[in-house]
Design a protein that fits this description.
Largest sheet: 6 strands, mixed
Number of helices: 1
Shape: elongated
Distance between the termini: 53 Å
Number of strands: 12
CATH superfamily of the largest domain: Immunoglobulins
Helix content: under 10%
Length: 180
């Protein structure tokens, strides 16, 4: 009997949590309140679904290796595609450290000898060109940012550029303490 009671209470708790509502109101002192119970003059908040992240499936997170040395060194690789696969364009990133991984897909999938990838962040080259097909960005400030990636040869000449994407970084604001 006790097991049945615990099971019913657990099930009711889960169901109630799934249908929870949140209300907000501002009192006469200007303090904003939140509650699961309605209050006179309160507004019902709509809470968005939880953000999820799916790592890229088509791009391995290892180094892009130069093509075999058996190929003629005089022959330049003809790239047909460079795409930023992660994050998606117009994504909102919620990360307290301001970190985001940028994954790149190429066609052909391997960089030619001497070719590298250059990250362009908010219109400015970020760091040195690299042979890795993923970039780890850290410490990104709140707000809107643009990202583009270019394939450059050993002399720094652009061979192909991805379409730019825009991301929105959401980080907690400093000084959000009650009473300040």
């Amino acid at each position: 009997m006790m097991k049945k009671f615990v099971w019913i209470v657990s099930l009711m708790t889960i169901i109630c949590a799934a249908y929870a509502q949140v209300f907000t109101w501002t009192d006469s002192q200007g303090v904003v309140h939140f509650s699961d119970n309605p209050h006179p003059g309160a507004e019902k908040l709509t809470i968005p679904d939880t953000q999820t992240f799916s790592p890229p499936t088509s791009t391995p997170r290892n180094q892009v290796t130069p093509q075999n040395q058996d190929d003629s060194d005089d022959k330049e690789v003809q790239y047909t595609k460079i795409v930023i696969t992660q994050p998606l364009n117009q994504s909102t990133i919620r990360n307290n450290q301001g970190s985001v991984t940028v994954a790149i897909e190429l066609d052909p999938p391997k960089l030619g000898s001497g070719d590298k990838l250059q990250m362009i962040f908010d219109g400015t080259p970020l760091g040195e060109p690299q042979s890795s097909n993923s970039f780890e960005l850290k410490g990104i400030d709140r707000g809107s940012h643009t990202i583009t990636v270019k394939i450059v040869n050993g002399e720094g000449t652009e061979l192909l550029s991805s379409d730019g994407i825009t991301i929105y970084m959401q980080r907690p604001r400093v000084g959000m303490v009650h009473g300040n």
